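For anyone still unconvinced, we reproduce a single protein record, the chain in one-letter code, the fold tokenised, and leave readers to judge:
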Amino acid sequence: MNEEPQLNLSWISQDAGASENVSRAASSLIPVVDPGPELMVNPWDIVLCTSGTLISCENAIVVLIIFHNPSLRAPMFLLIGSLALADLLAGLGLVINFIFAYLLQSDSAKLVTVGLIVASFSASICSLLAITIDRYLSLYYALTYNSERTVTFTYVMLIVLWGASICLGLLPVTGWNCLKDESTCSIIKPLTKNNVAVMSVSFLLMFGLMLQLYVQICKIVMRHAHQIALQHHFLATSHYVTTRKGVSTLAIILGTFAACWMPFTLYSLIADYTYPSIYTYATLVPATYNSIINPVIYAFRNQEIQKSLWMICCGCVPASVSQRAKSPSDV
């Protein structure tokens, strides 16, 4: 990932023997010009570091809000907090990776930073899946979902997803890397091609499960809206608008997730370390944007988090925010 751009100097050696005498004769007539400074920092690494900084700042705000407000302890907010924490660690991992790549160039540092990035992004994607499961269950078991059993199930999901993510992050450190055999390297050194392929396939499976759950959520929402509209004909238009808005929100969630992660996932399945690094950067950078968008979709649009944010910032809650908090969410 930290491959520095190299200058292609192969053309200098072409026809060297034929022009050797001519160059010697003309050398006294050509002024000596010092070569320009080499590019010390890869611009793509700067982009990733900038993304990591923005990710860290955004998600740190969400983590502080949820930690600061004791009322935000429902299963939904615990999962949003897990997502924000995972994205926060991912952003810090990108920044640390940039610092270590140019200030502390060692295999040990590379293994640790790559492990942190893998673990945090894995936890982020798993948290998105857990939020989807939570939304589905809250609609399917609408009357009994806020029981103690639900809270226990949420904690179990958090333990499982963070445990699996930490295990994935420890793989490079515990020897599952390509430092000893470069031919097994993937597009992200020092991860092996097999490890990246397994993670990519797992991502595709999780995306398929999220898609199926959101389809079921849409069916439940539309069925409930239709039943309410039949009982209260004067509310039919309002429920139609609400349902359409909810379905569009789900489409934005899935569309954003797929647009950010699918290019990198598909590319990692077909490419290896011999491919030009620019393709890796071009697919990896959009994947990091998902962690920038997550706080906007899952946290800052939530009315309770908005109220807490206003209370922390200025000690008051605008009337518009307070009014929206009294109405149910779209999905």
Summary: Confidence is low (pLDDT under 50) at residues 1-39, 326-330. Residues 193-231 form the longest helix (39 residues). Residues 41-326 form a domain with the Rhopdopsin 7-helix transmembrane proteins fold (CATH 1.20.1070.10). The radius of gyration is 26 Å.
